[in-house]
């Protein structure tokens, strides 16, 4: 102990390094005695600090920050989700499976009259809530991990900016602990939301993006009762309608193999643009009470630590919502046509639309936690577009728009499908498409003319003639090598 009875700062700093540092070595009893001035039994204090250190180490190992670089502990998330999914004790009876199998068979026959997109190669399934969790977990990993990494990196950057330079090395271990604790909290919250979703969804395509593996269709009969509450429709009619809708959704994503990746990549692109409100993080850190750790989960779930959407994010969300609406609109039209002979089809259809428009509590929680509350706000407009296209050019030409990404209708087509319909009708007649400036420029290139494409201030593309290079005596030499573009 120094003359002024104060502990040596270097000894204290070294102790923190031992507690939080990368090595997490043993605590030196003599160092503890110097720091405490002999007032506390160093052996007892060493045991207490070692237990404290072991607790931190164990928490870090149980949380995120795993060896493969992932932030979320997916074992924790899945265990939490399955605990909620399986706690009701509800099962699927043999009669329910038989009824749904028969409904899927009839739904497939009806769909064959409403779309040219082929049947699935495997039969549709009836899943329990727990099975739904297990089947969808790979997609949750694909979607949530980039978002969690963005959040964690933002938190750590905020911490790094706030800590004085001379203390950064000392709290390196504490930073890892915070990262692990953040991953643990996020894993638990995400697992709870997925578990609650499993008690609310009735089919694989309910959430709005493809959660089941490509080519799979499934219904969760355990959740039928809540869905049909107040509808006053027979179970067989509900099963037929929902089975038809689920099969249409699964057929589309199996046929348009690019579509699944397109939707997921746009979701990831949007979530990566999410930014942390550092002031809110600092405020939450000041208000955090270790005796009430659940409040950290509440902060994560209500999304109050996120900045408002930027202009780029709003544009990305708009593109994503248009894409989801385009998919859902097609499914809606095909399902309506396929179930036209079902007496209660209109009533069930309206119930499905209301449910998709309002969402459920678990979806809203997911929207706060991952910014994935995707309501197809333009569903009616998209369905109206698909109806107009179907009436104008028929089922085959309509479904061919899903063959390639470039064929898919745009947001402008949803607003006014007239141009899309005119183009499809011209193709059906065998008319040459209207040429534009780019077509003319490319034609000249392919014909061998020496041209250079230039872009005007207004964005138009025009060919510009170029003079062939001259040799030393001034005579022109034919150009060699590839044409410049």
Give a brief outline of the structure.
The chain has helices at 9-20, 29-36, 42-62, 74-86, 94-114, 129-162, 172-198, 224-228, 235-255, 257-272, 278-287, 294-302, 311-338, 345-358, 361-370, 379-393, 395-399, 411-415, 418-429, 437-446; strands at residues 125-126, 218-219, 451-455, 461-465. It is mostly helical and 485 residues long.
Can you characterise this structure?
- This protein is an all-alpha fold.
- About 60% of the residues lie in helices and about 5% in strands.
- Strands 1-2 form a two-stranded parallel ribbon. The protein has a two-stranded antiparallel sheet with strand order 3-4.
- Helix 3 (about 40-60) packs across helix 7 (about 170-200) and helix 13 packs across helix 16 (about 380-395).
- It is flat.
Keyword list:
485 residues; two-stranded antiparallel sheet; mainly alpha; two-stranded parallel ribbon; disordered C terminus
Q: Report the strand count.
A: 4
Radius of gyration computed on alpha carbons:
30 Å
Kindly state the mean pLDDT as a whole number?
76
Low-confidence stretches: 15-27, 48-65, 476-485
Number of helices: 20
Large-scale geometry: flat
The topology string of helices and strands comes to: HHHHHEHHEHHHHHHHHHHHHHEE
Multimerization status: single chain
The largest sheet is: 2 strands, parallel
Beta fraction: under 5%
**Estimated helix fraction:** 55-70%
Strand order of the largest sheet: 1-2
Distance between the termini: 78 Å
| Global structural class | mainly alpha
